[in-house]
Design goal:
The complex is a heterodimer of chains A (486) and B (480). In chain A, 47% of the residues lie in helices and 13% in strands. Chain A is α/β, with parallel strands linked by helices and 486 residues long. In chain A, strands 7-18-17-14-12-10 form a 6-stranded parallel beta sheet. Chain A has a 4-stranded mixed beta sheet with strand order 3-4-2-11. In chain A, strands 9-8-20-19 form a 4-stranded mixed beta sheet, with helices on one face. The longest helix of chain A has 22 residues, at 248-269. Chain A is globular and about 80 Å long. Chain B contains 18 helices and 21 strands. In chain B, helix 5 (155-166) runs antiparallel to helix 18 (465-479). Chain B has 480 residues and is of the alpha/beta class. Chain B has a domain at 74-384: TIM Barrel (Alpha-Beta Barrel). A 4-stranded mixed beta sheet of chain B has the order 3-4-2-12. The chains are: A alpha/beta (486), B alpha/beta (480). The interface between A and B is large, with 135 and 136 residues. Strand 1 of chain A pairs antiparallel with strand 1 of chain B, so a sheet runs across the interface.
Chain lengths: 486, 480
């Protein structure tokens, strides 16, 4: 029996030490107490004031204990369910799930390959493809629908997503009416408020602004969600050199200050609300004036925020599978791989934006499919090397001896599936076989796999009557929107 | 004021194995050496091993007491400094410093002009060495390919002569036997200005392999002993297949590789105590359906990281792999596998990382892949820098001055530091309209253009005529 045995069950990866994390956390508490945040929602300001924050106009300076209390109040772990209640994801630091992102302006048409505005039906396709991909854990819409009543785009998006996947869905919203409509749609699927409360299958995705601003609409949305026990993802950026200080450390402070002050507001509204904080800390490329999604710094800072969130016991939303490239090329592959590997190793909980091209301007289902394979590959790396008497196989080595072979050993047959990942899109054939099969590039294989999923994958059907109820909710929303305009 | 007991991570921290797991692997390998043993097909080695206390049975089956392996580890130098052709230090093989170089001996080449998949020629090799000479993040060269327009008997001699002439970077070479290894040393000595100078400068390093499972061939040990005798560095790295020539588990593959490396090291150190040795193993698996060795697999990333960690644990310079893929052409798969491998190489800190440019499981070299890896190295530099957390970088005062809703575009610190970020050379971040104006190219197209530009435009520092003459004489001697 070994004593003092310290085993790495998985690879160990960290960007920040505990003391560095404490330093960033303390700096964040100091920033919130000294500089404060602009809170553009009156109810939220009232909640913070009631807890001891100092309010001057919209500026709210939050003392450390309010933040610490919010961190303590947030559940360390919560579950997002599949709508049939079977499959679920555990939102807890170090469990990693990947999913798409929201609101791209353009979409790569899966039929023609053309880049065009997002249409009705696209988020449904996205959801169906996600449903068919083993390594995508949850669903977002990948595009802002352009051909519907503008103010209702997120509601249409949710209605399409929920009908086309069983996996948990992350909707977003412009306003409380949207959130309420989304909730009604979920209710039509779940049957009762209690069912949603017991087994939530969606979480509201909402954002804060950098530096240090919470908008009225975003706060109204999350307050409504908290009130109805809907889990919340609260995420924001910080673009180093533009909306955050130019250093990584300063950018971490901006991101964390936004997330934690938001968390405080939500926990003050309803203690125990299930919140996943998030950050998209990016470098800005000063040559283009755009944040660089594909920059190595984005992955590095996100991994650091993941370290910090784990330390605080908060689930964290990271970013991966999002490239600067304009189309699915080698650059898209490189940037995705860097992001997926570092998000995976850092243990970010919900990793989003899988499927983005051109700096979040284009949603691409091909990109989603390619990343599914990169994620699978990364998952194998994340499992590490198992060291045990069983895997060291000293007796087998002795039995085979110098110059023998292991191919026919029964242990090889028994363990090869566990030990060795088998790719579906990566090619490993000899050249002749590859040529005989049509000399396809990975790009060709990705497209073929996408076509196959679109042609064959059937998501679990909605419960009976739900589709009609959802249609009625959409019509009522249209009627309200029409009235608002007149 | 500095706070007490503060431990900062200067770079990201990454480890596959814990100290106790490393020790377990070491002890298990010692048990393989003690119980199962290694077959040495080499008389002189058997004599050296017997003298030093190994148990020999069945003619050539050598079993080792633990002391012999641990003694060899203890006497192996912890660092090797390799110099360029001019004798200037180029690579410090120590700690977790990482250097990248190509692979060797691919039969096939992807022609950057035509895209054709065809046999290598000498002209291709020269182009490749020039390319490596020009790329700042390719630090050493291996032969790249097997030229089809050379007498097979002179293959390795020709590669060595061409590498010495067409790049100043350090060389990792492969040969088939003791005589050609001696000629390689002679050529390098001629270029260095004498044998003494070559040994001092360590411009060349030999790659050789044990024969898995658990055997050392006559030619490999011949070369190993020759290099040890000369005091020139070697890497004696098994290339075994989990589920074929090694157990199916990574742990089993690792201890078998370890036993093979350590048995080679024992005989190497017995030949000359303190001779420079690089620790490495390529532990692949065989894709069962395709019957191909996998270079791009996640398992290979794990075993190479584990090997690097073992090498660091022993305090011996380490050998690694990156920039290689199983893809047949320069496609997205090649990019994914290259990226994963470069990240893992950087995080695990192997010193000499080779096989940059391999496609098709090491049967084809692509120059575009080499240029892509060069770019990936600069990208991962910015991951390895980590995040500096200090009062200087937290910028709390600046943050307070800007306040909620402001911007940092023109602050003093932004102007001072925005160049700290990585600016890619080949990856594109333009706005779509500007990208279209610049031709709307894919990365694959830009890589190809860059390859052609360098191969056409770059001329390495010429080799002194007299030295070149000497190298040619040795080459003609081999032919005669």
């Amino acid at each position: 029996m070994d004593i003092n045995y310290h085993a790495h069950q998985t690879p160990q990866f960290r960007v920040l030490s505990d003391r560095q994390i404490e330093k960033v956390y303390r700096a964040t508490l100091e920033c919130l107490n000294r500089t404060g945040v602009n809170v553009l929602n009156a109810e939220a300001r009232g909640l913070l004031a009631g807890a001891g924050a100092r309010v001057e106009g919209v500026r709210v300076r939050i003392p450390p204990h309010v933040i610490q209390d919010a961190v303590a109040a947030n559940p360390r772990s919560f579950t997002l369910w599949e709508r049939d209640g079977n499959h679920r994801i555990q939102v807890v630091p170090d469990r990693v799930y990947f999913g798409p992102g929201p609101t791209c302006t353009y979409f790569v048409d899966p039929e023609t390959g053309e880049r065009r505005k997002v249409r009705r039906g696209d988020p449904g396709l996205t959801a169906r493809v996600c449903d068919g991909l083993d390594n995508i854990g949850y669903v977002m819409g990948l595009g802002l629908i352009d051909d519907v009543t503008h103010s209702l785009a997120p509601v249409y998006e949710f209605a399409e997503m929920i009908a086309n996947t069983g996996k948990p869905v992350l909707p977003w919203a412009y306003c409380v009416e949207n959130v309420s409509d989304i909730y009604q749609i979920a209710l039509a699927v779940a049957g009762s408020e209690d069912a949603i409360r017991r087994r939530p299958f969606f979480a509201l995705f909402s954002t804060f602004q950098a530096p240090l601003v919470h908008t009225d609409e975003d706060l109204a949305n999350v307050l409504w969600a908290a009130d109805h026990d809907v889990p919340i993802v609260y995420l924001g950026g910080g673009s180093a050199g533009a909306t955050a200080p130019v250093t990584g450390a300063g950018t971490l402070v901006i991101s964390l200050a936004g997330a934690l002050s938001g968390l405080a507001i939500i926990q003050l509204k309803k203690r125990g609300t299930q919140v996943c904080i998030g950050g998209v800390p990016q470098p800005m490329d000063l040559r283009t004036g755009r944040p660089a999604y594909g920059g190595p710094e984005m992955s590095l800072y996100s991994a650091a925020l993941s370290d910090i969130s784990r330390y605080l016991g908060l689930p964290f939303m990271g970013t991966a599978g999002a490239s600067e490239a304009k189309l699915l090329d080698l650059q898209a592959a490189i940037e995705s791989t860097v992001q997926v590997v570092l998000s995976g190793l850092s243990g970010a909980t919900l990793v989003h934006d899988v499927g983005f091209l051109d700096c979040a301007d284009i949603g691409s289902l091909e990109m989603l499919v390619m990343n599914d394979e990169i994620i699978a590959m990364t998952r194998r790396v994340m499992r590490g090397v198992e060291i045990s008497d069983d895997t060291l196989m000293l007796d087998l080595i002795d039995k085979v001896g110098p110059g023998g072979e292991f191919m026919s050993a029964k242990e090889t047959a028994r363990r090869c599936r566990d030990e060795i990942w088998v790719p579906t899109l990566m090619d490993r054939e000899p050249w002749e076989n590859w040529e005989a099969a049509g000399s396809q590039t990975m790009n060709d294989r990705v497209k073929a796999r996408l076509r196959e999923i679109l042609a064959t994958h059937e998501p679990p059907p909605l419960p009976e009557g739900a589709a009609e109820k959802i249609e009625a909710i959409l019509q009522a929303a249209e009627a309200r929107a029409g009235k608002d305009q007149t | 004021m500095k706070s007490g007991n503060s431990i900062a991570l200067q770079s990201p921290q990454f480890a596959i194995l814990s100290d106790t797991q490393l020790q377990d692997l070491h002890l298990a390998a010692l048990e393989v050496l003690r119980r199962t043993g290694i077959r040495f097909h080499h008389q002189e080695a058997l004599y050296l091993l017997k003298e030093a206390g190994a148990f020999i049975s069945d003619g050539n089956l050598v079993k080792f007491p633990a002391r012999m392996a641990e003694d060899a580890i203890a006497s192996t130098p912890g660092r090797i400094v390799m110099c360029d052709r001019d004798g200037q230090p180029a690579m410090f093989l120590e700690g977790t410093r990482v250097y990248f170089g190509t692979g060797s001996d691919c039969p096939n080449f992807l022609d950057p002009e035509t895209g054709a998949h065809r046999k290598f020629t000498q002209t291709d090799l020269i182009g490749g060495y020039r390319l490596c000479d020009a790329l700042p993040n390719i630090h050493f060269v291996m032969s790249l390919g097997i030229p089809s327009d050379v007498d097979p008997a002179l293959l390795y001699d020709t590669q060595m002569a061409l590498m010495l002439e067409h790049t100043t970077k350090p060389i990792v070479f492969v040969t088939n036997d003791r005589a050609s290894c001696q000629r390689a040393i002679d050529m390098a000595a001629a270029v260095a200005g004498g044998f003494e100078a070559l040994v001092e400068q360590q411009h060349i390093l030999l790659y050789s392999e044990p024969s898995s499972p658990l055997r050392q061939s006559e030619t490999a040990v011949d070369k190993l002993l020759l290099m040890a005798e000369c005091g020139l560095p070697v890497v004696h790295s098994p290339g075994s297949l989990m589920g074929g020539t090694a157990p199916i588990t990574m742990a089993g593959g690792l201890i078998m590789s370890l036993a093979e490396i350590l048995s080679g090291l024992v005989v190497h150190q017995l030949q000359r105590r303190g001779a420079p040795f690089v620790f490495g193993a390529g532990l692949h698996h065989m894709d069962m359906s395709a019957a191909q060795i996998c270079y791009g697999s996640p398992e290979f990333q794990l075993t190479k990281a584990a090997i690097a960690q073992l090498g660091h644990w022993y305090g011996i310079p380490t050998w690694g792999y990156a920039g290689c893929s199983d893809a047949k052409v320069m496609d997205e798969q090649a990019a994914v596998e290259a990226t994963l491998s470069v990240i893992m190489a950087r995080l695990s800190g192997a010193n000499l990382v080779h096989d940059v440019g391999y496609l098709e499981s090491g049967l084809t070299t692509s120059f575009e892949m080499i240029v892509l890896t060069d770019e990936l190295v600069t990208m991962t530099d910015h991951i390895m820098k980590g995040i500096e957390i200090s009062d200087d970088t937290l910028l709390a005062d600046e943050l307070h001055r800007v306040g909620p809703g402001g911007h940092f575009l023109d602050t003093e610190e932004t102007l001072n530091r925005f160049r700290d970020f990585w600016f890619p050379q080949l990856l594109d971040r333009k706005r779509r309209t500007q990208w279209l104006e610049a031709g709307g190219t894919t990365l694959g197209q830009r890589l190809n253009a860059r390859v052609k530009e360098i191969v056409k435009g770059h001329r390495p520092k010429p080799l002194d005529q007299e030295k070149k003459q000497k190298v040619q004489e040795i080459l003609s001697g081999a032919a005669g």
